[in-house]
Design goal:
With about 400 residues, the chain is an alpha+beta fold. The longest helix is centred in the last third of the chain and has 22 residues. A hairpin with an 8-residue loop joins strand 11 and strand 12. Helix content is about 25%, strand content about 20%. Helix 1 packs antiparallel against helix 8. The protein starts with a helix and ends in a 25-residue tail after the last helix. The strands form two sheets. Strands 1, 4, 5, 6, 7, 8, 9, 10, 11 and 12 form a ten-stranded antiparallel β-sheet that branches.
Length: about 400
C-alpha cells in the first residue's frame, strides 16, 4: 500500500467519524457580536456562575469540540483585523466550499492525477470562525520570527527533503511541494544521508521505519493540538477528586490521553522526557492552569522539540462553552512567547454514548508492506526491470495543495 493510499484510508475513516458525530454548528454569541464575545475571556469571565463538581472544583467535564474553522495564523491581507465581518465569513464559506467540491483532474497517469483522491463526497467543512486567527498575541496574529539558529536548522532540513525530491515529477512539474527546489533528472547523492535530527515528517524514501512520518507510524505530534479544517478534533475531559484526564480524538485515528498531575508535586527531572510532556496543573479561581514541560526530542511542533514549554488555561465560560488559551514558548526557536485561544462547544453525551476508540490500524499493519514494497522496487531497479525509486514521489501529500483562502 502506497504512503498516500495509507493516508487516504485513515483520513476517510476519521472524516466519516467526524461527520457522524458533528452536529450542524450553531451560531454563537461570538459569531453574532465578536466585540462583545471578546470580553468574555479568562481575565474577564462572564457573569454566569461557575459550574462545580460534587467535590467543589470547577466542572470542565464533557465532550468538547471547536465547531468553526479558524486559521492558526492571520493572513497578511487582514492586517490588524481581529474579527471577520459577517459578509467576509459568508464569502469565505462560499469560496472554500467551491474549492473543496471541485473534482480537479490533471494529466492522466501522472502521480498528481492518481493522488487526487478526495472531492466533496468524502470531505466535510466547518464554517469559518469569528476570529481571523487563533493567535491572539502577538496582536498581528502571526507566529513570532524564528531565532537565527532555528532558521538554519529549518533551512537545512528543507534542503535535505528537497534533494530527495529533485528527480521526481513533483519538481519536474514545479508542484508547490517542490517550492524552493529544482528539478534534476539525476537522483541526489544525499539519498542515503542520515537526517540531522530524529525524523518526524515524510521524506522521499523508505530505507527504515523512521523514514516515515509520525502519522504513518501511528504516532502523533501531541501537544499543542488545534484540530483540522475538515472535522476538527474532540476533547473528552474527566475529573475525579485530585485528578483530571483528557482524551484527544484527533488526526487519522491517533487518539491519545493525557493525565494532569494535580497534587502540587514539581515537574519530573530534566532527564525524563515524555511524548506529551509532563503536565502539572492547579486551579486559579475557575481556571485550570497547566504547565507542560519535559517534551521528548522525538516530538516536533513547528520546529520546537525538547525545549517546548506550554502554559494552558482552561475556563468554563458557560453551560456549553469552554475557553482554551495556551502560551507557547521556546527561546531556542522563537524570539518571543505567543498565545493561542480556542472556543469549544459541548457535544451531546447521549448522541456520543457509544464511542469507538480511534485506532491507526492501517498504519500498524501497512508499514511493513511499505517497507517491503520499497525493497521490491530497489530489487527490480537493480535487475533492470523497473524505474529508479528515487524518481518516484512517495512523500508528498498532493491532496489539498491548493491555496486555502483562509491562509
Amino acid at each position: 500500500m502506497g504512503t498516500r493510499v495509507l493516508k487516504s484510508i485513515g483520513a476517510v475513516a476519521v472524516i466519516m467519524l467526524a461527520v457522524a458525530l458533528l452536529k450542524p454548528a450553531q451560531v454563537t454569541v461570538a459569531q453574532q457580536a465578536p466585540a462583545v464575545a471578546a470580553k468574555a475571556t479568562a481575565s474577564n469571565p462572564p457573569s454566569t456562575p461557575a459550574l462545580k463538581t460534587p467535590w467543589g472544583e470547577p466542572d470542565l467535564q464533557g465532550i468538547w469540540m471547536d465547531e468553526s474553522d479558524t486559521p492558526l495564523q492571520r493572513s497578511p491581507k487582514y492586517a490588524n483585523q481581529e474579527f471577520f465581518t459577517e459578509v467576509q465569513r459568508a464569502e469565505l464559506d462560499k469560496e472554500r466550499a467551491a474549492l473543496l467540491g471541485r473534482d480537479k483532474r490533471v494529466e492522466r497517469g501522472t502521480e498528481l492525477d492518481v493522488a487526487g483522491a478526495y472531492n466533496s463526497v468524502f470531505m466535510s467543512m466547518k464554517r469559518t470562525g469569528a476570529r481571523t486567527s487563533l493567535i491572539v498575541d502577538p496582536p498581528d496574529g502571526r507566529i513570532p520570527p524564528r531565532t537565527p539558529e532555528a532558521q538554519k536548522i529549518a533551512a537545512a532540513d528543507r534542503d535535505f527533503r528537497l534533494a530527495l525530491l529533485q528527480s521526481t515529477e513533483t519538481c519536474k512539474n514545479k508542484s508547490v511541494a517542490c517550492t524552493g527546489g529544482k528539478y534534476d533528472p539525476t537522483p541526489s547523492s544525499r539519498r542515503s544521508e542520515i537526517p540531522a535530527r530524529y525524523n518526524t515528517g515524510r521524506m522521499n524514501r523508505h530505507d527504515a521505519p523512521e523514514d516515515g512520518a509520525l502519522g504513518d507510524r501511528c504516532l502523533t505530534g501531541g501537544l499543542p493540538e488545534f484540530g483540522t479544517a475538515y472535522g476538527g478534533s474532540f476533547r473528552r475531559i474527566v475529573q475525579t477528586p485530585g485528578g483530571i484526564s483528557m482524551f484527544y480524538d484527533v488526526g487519522q485515528g491517533q487518539g491519545w490521553q493525557r493525565n494532569i498531575v494535580m497534587n502540587g508535586a514539581p515537574h519530573l527531572p530534566p532527564s525524563i522526557r515524555q511524548w506529551y510532556g509532563d503536565s502539572r496543573g492547579h486551579w486559579e479561581g475557575n481556571t485550570l492552569v497547566i504547565d507542560v514541560t519535559n517534551f521528548s526530542p522525538k516530538t516536533d511542533y513547528l520546529g520546537s522539540r525538547e525545549d517546548l514549554h506550554l502554559v494552558e488555561r482552561w475556563t468554563r465560560t458557560g453551560p456549553a462553552t469552554l475557553e482554551y488559551a495556551v502560551t507557547i514558548e521556546d527561546p531556542s526557536v522563537w524570539t518571543r512567547p505567543w498565545t493561542v485561544k480556542q472556543e469549544f462547544t459541548k457535544q451531546s453525551e447521549q448522541e456520543n454514548k457509544i464511542y469507538y476508540e480511534p485506532r491507526c490500524v492501517e498504519g500498524n499493519y501497512a508499514l511493513p508492506s511499505l517497507m517491503l514494497s520499497a525493497r521490491m522496487a530497489d530489487r527490480a531497479f537493480a535487475q533492470g526491470k523497473g524505474p529508479d525509486p528515487a524518481t518516484s514521489d512517495n512523500a508528498t501529500d498532493f491532496v489539498g495543495v491548493e491555496d486555502d483562502p483562509l491562509q
